[in-house]
Amino acid sequence: MRAYHSLPDGYREVLQINMQSDRKTALKINVGAGIVNVLVLVAGHFIVPYTEFLNMSPVSAVFLRFAVMIIAYIVYMAMHELTHAAVMKAVGGGKVVFGFTGLYAFAGSREDWFDKTAYRCIALAPLIVWGIVFGFLAFVVPRSWFWVVWFLQAGNIGGAAGDVYVTAKLWHMPDTILVRDTGVDMTVYGRQE
Questions:
Q1: Domain boundaries in the chain?
Q2: Of the four, 76, 82, 101, 116, which is 20 to 30 A from 56 by CA?
């Protein structure tokens, strides 16, 4: 599991994934993310009925939790990208770039090529790390705050749809592939035999 700072000899481009230019794939991923969000929120209703969130008294308690939820989600989006970046660094990556396309935030590297195992760890780390964190918090916060945490969990799981999509695309590719992820596009390189 490692990063290469230059493309080794004998590799050529075999796949390009660009959510900015491939609107059809981006739409499928976003619809899938929306469906997953809804399913996670519905599952939360069986843990703590959403009516408990809406029927709080005084009404200001609902607005307070809603405001905390929005602010926490913005912070979470930054933490999601920082988690990608931390794993990039942990596997030997260099400079990480951050940005926002209007559709999504990203962390990427223009200088590194990651092996398949490293890239899968990079892609899935936020889903796993934050899934565990929010799952734990959902069951330890007071019941009246459950939906604040569960909303973050739904955003985490649904928001990882692009990461899961890319990981699935790479699943059956040879273990020798290298992935360059600039944040807005991913290019997969295969070793010529």
A1: 3-191
A2: 76
